[in-house]
Write a structure and sequence with these properties.
235 residues; mainly alpha; Serine Threonine Protein Phosphatase 5, Tetratricopeptide repeat
Length: 235
């Protein structure tokens, strides 16, 4: 099945969304992403969304996809679609798969099985495991929501790729987990260092204020010496 399709309006939307990133302030998206993931671990979705967005607006693709997934869970389908589209056009396989799912289900966009199949295949060709499985099922059964016609030969091709992709996915997941844990540790270390510096500065300020009080008291005494009582003269 030929999946080279005209993306039309979606392409223009993607270009416009990417253009919006040109005015984003420079910061550290990986740190923001780590903060967002920590917030997700604590089930603080509001804080997670804030930090995902900070990283996403700096064109950090994992954050764009994660933000899209969070918005999708929150039933904000149109904005989720926008973030998936932005990341997918820049080559993020996970975003391409999610975009395919949204086209297949008509979430945040008009249902379009041709585009659903296009983006799912795009993700599968980038070794996205779920996308590859969807392609295999679609070609094997003619079902799966992508509008694919049964094609046993194509099904075999995708099925043959699955074992190697599963191993690669496990390895990638472990590497991402290790990198994320390292980023979270770096964030905690930075926070601890900042807290130590804050407490040190506060202590120094307190000591300085105390010394100033002593100096002010000494200066006041110097200006207004206390008269010593004179000894009583006896006859």
């Amino acid at each position: 099945m030929e999946m080279s399709i005209s993306l039309g309006r979606s392409y223009l939307v993607g270009i416009v969304l990417m253009a919006c990133l040109s005015q984003v302030a420079v910061a550290d998206p990986e740190e923001d992403f780590a903060l967002a993931e920590s917030a997700m671990d604590e089930q603080d979705l509001h804080e997670a969304a804030i930090n995902y967005r900070r990283a996403a607006e700096q064109n950090y693709l994992p954050a764009q996809t994660a933000l899209g997934e969070l918005l999708r869970i929150s039933q904000d389908s149109e904005r989720a679609f926008g973030w998936f589209l932005m990341a997918a056009y820049q080559g993020d396989a996970a975003a391409a798969y999610d975009l395919g799912q949204m086209y297949a289900n008509g979430e945040g966009v008009e249902k379009n099985l041709a585009k659903a199949a296009y983006w799912t295949k795009h993700a599968a060709e980038k070794n996205h495991l779920a996308a590859a499985k969807a392609m295999a099922v679609g070609y094997r059964t003619g079902k799966g929501g992508l509008g694919l016609v049964k094609d046993p030969e194509q099904a075999k091709i995708w099925e043959a790729r699955l074992p190697g992709m599963e191993q690669a996915a496990k390895k990638e997941m472990m590497e991402k987990y290790a990198a994320l844990q390292a980023a979270k540790l770096a964030v905690r270390k930075a926070a601890f260092k900042a807290e130590v510096a804050r407490r040190k500065a506060a202590k120094e300020a307190e000591e300085k204020a105390a010394m100033k009080k002593v100096d002010d008291a000494d200066e006041l005494n110097a200006k207004n010496p206390v008269e010593k009582s004179q000894p009583v003269q006896t006859k």
